[in-house]
Design goal:
Blueprint lengths: L7 E6 L5 H15 L3 E4 L5 H7 L4 E5 L6 H13 L6 E5 L4 H4 L2 H6 L5 E2 L20 E6 L2 H5 L2 H14 L9 E6 L10 E5 L3 E4 L3 H13 L16
Parallel strand pairs: 1-2, 1-3, 3-4, 6-7
Antiparallel strand pairs: 4-5, 6-8, 8-9
Protein name: (2Fe-2S) ferredoxin
InterPro entries: Thioredoxin-like_sf
Length: about 230
């Protein structure tokens, strides 16, 4: 790839400290850049890593829910901490298809926004409100479920609900990644409220069934339940 004009490129995002997705990303970045600097936003230390990194610095945020508002929020937080000079930000949700476009993303310097002179983030933004919803699904992203592929299942869950028009809307589903829910040996685990139902979703096919049949069509899925007698 062509020369990228940064002293360091820092990748931040949830789950980058563990799991198959993080290992695959580490390998791809190392092959492309010769080194990889990954920091997990669910653990302490990524703010310090930004502050200590040499300039000019590109921060690539891999938050799955990142949008323009999130990107500007991150730029504002970096600037507030006094670390904004010479720091640039770009957001890209981490997906396997995205990895193939990594080199192009790093070379598109016009898409890398500076963390100096950041316009103020609006006082009333979408994430300051409780999302409209009728049900809430918590997908475990604890250490063991993550190693079983929970991060990839989270992306499928969100994309499937969004395509069905059921993601965080009136009558829809609010989804949240949680820490360990137990039982780890039956995971990845998902719990649905207010019904209080617990599901084991071990692969993408199970996630698709959970969305299409339970959350959209409203049909029972006893064979996926881990709180049903005989299913654990």
């Amino acid at each position: 790839m062509s020369h990228v004009p940064y002293a360091r490129i820092l990748f931040i995002g949830p789950g980058l400290g563990r799991g198959a997705s993080a290992e695959r990303l580490q390998q791809r970045i190392t092959a492309l850049l010769g080194e990889a600097h990954l920091h997990d936003t669910e653990q302490d230390g990524f703010w310090q890593a930004i502050a200590a990194a040499p300039r000019p610095l590109l921060v690539v945020d891999l938050e799955p829910r990142a949008d323009a508002a999130h990107r500007d929020w991150l730029r504002e937080r970096i600037a507030e901490r006094g670390d904004g000079a010479g720091v640039f930000v770009v957001c890209a949700a981490l997906e396997d298809a995205w990895l193939d476009g990594l080199a192009a993303l790093l070379e598109r310097c016009e898409a890398h926004l500076p963390c100096s002179d950041v316009p103020p983030v609006p006082a009333h933004h979408a994430w300051s409100q409780i999302p409209p919803h009728a049900q809430r699904l918590l997908l475990c992203n604890g250490p063991r479920c993550t190693r079983k592929g929970a991060l990839g299942l989270w992306k499928t869950l969100r994309q499937r609900l969004k395509a069905a028009g059921k993601l965080e809307c009136e009558g829809g589903v609010h989804i949240t990644r949680s820490q360990c829910q137990f039982p780890c040996d039956l995971g990845p685990t998902a719990s649905l409220y207010p019904q209080g139902e617990w599901y084991g979703i071990r692969d993408e096919a199970a996630v698709i069934r959970l969305v299409d049949e339970r959350l959209v069509a409203g049909r029972a899925l006893p064979e996926l339940r881990i709180d049903e007698p005989g299913n654990n």
